[in-house]
Amino acid sequence: MALRNRLLTSSIGRKGIMAVSGLLLSLFLLVHAAGNSTTFFGAEAFNSYAAHLHALNWLIPVFEMGLIAIFLLHIFFGIMLTLENYQARPSRYLAARSSGGRTPGSRTMIFTGMLILVFLAVHLKNFHFTDHSRRISVIVREILAQPLIGGFYLLAMAGLGLHISHGFWSLLQSLGLNHPKYNIFLYRAALTAALMVTMIFVLIAGLSMMWPEFLGG
Ligand code: HEM
């Protein structure tokens, strides 16, 4: 009980929760991007990947509940940390002057986070709460080929890219991977990973919009 209270009320505890939830969400994103990249090998490859996932049966709701809990923790503590950081600043003027060293990703975390949340609502409505009697390749293609939805996906992926460009780097720091000699390498590795994940999603949305034969047309 005391440990739980300390975790929730201390700033370090809250940062720890952000790091662990960020790590689990990053793993989910990497696996989701890797799985979705089967679309580049054609409709059959993608449908077969989706069929293997659905064969996991009872594990799916367990996984989904866990994912929702992790998302909620990440959002709640993310908002708390933002408010805390904001209140800790001496003044807006000084904060603006001392914000050197901060990146576009770190400055916009709360806004890109909100964009991702809206994206997730649209995304789940599009692909999760839909009629699954049709092949998933057809569903994905039909949805993303619509200019308004495809365009929104591209905008959301720009936000996601910014969010994880800082998130991946911040995660490495929280895991203790921090050494003046290697930091520039770690920073570039985090940026490259963020760019690669983002590009997979951007390519899927872009190809669905512009290439009629993508995913079997
Ligand atoms: C072009 C980009 C993307 C495509 C084509 C795509 C495709 C899919 C598909 C087909 C599903 C499975 C729905 C089902 O079978 O129930 C799914 C689920 C999901 N996707 Fe994506 N996705 C994309 C990007 C993203 C991104 C960027 C995120 C996170 C920021 C994300 C988060 C999720 C979540 C949380 C689920 C629900 C998992 C579950 O129900 O178990 N997706 N996506």
Q: Could you explain how this protein is built, in words?
A:
With 217 residues, the chain is mostly helical. It has one domain: 3 helical TM bundles of succinate and fumarate reductases (Up-down Bundle), CATH 1.20.1300.10. It has 10 helices and no strands. Helix 1 packs across helix 2 and helix 2 packs across helix 4. The protein starts with a helix and ends in a 7-residue tail after the last helix. The model has no long low-confidence stretch (mean pLDDT 91). Bound molecules: protoporphyrin IX containing FE. The site of protoporphyrin IX containing FE (HEM) has 16 residues, from helix 2, helix 4, helix 7, helix 8 and helix 9.
Question: What's the CATH class label?
Answer: Mainly Alpha
Could you please say which CATH topology applies here? 3 helical TM bundles of succinate and fumarate reductases
Structure annotation, total helices: 10
**Can you tell me the overall shape?**
globular
What is the straight-line distance between the termini?
56 Å
> Could you tell me the number of beta strands?
0
Number of domains: 1
Please give the largest β-sheet: none
Low-pLDDT regions: none
What's the pLDDT, averaged over the residues?
91
Order of helices and strands: HHHHHHHHHH
Query: What fraction of the residues are assigned to beta strands by DSSP?
Result: under 5%
What class would the helix/strand composition place it in? mainly alpha
Under CATH, the homologous superfamily reads Fumarate reductase/succinate dehydrogenase, transmembrane subunit
Estimated helix fraction: over 70%
Query: What small ligands are held by the chains?
Result: protoporphyrin IX containing FE
The CATH architecture would be Up-down Bundle
Report the C-alpha radius of gyration, rounded: 19 Å
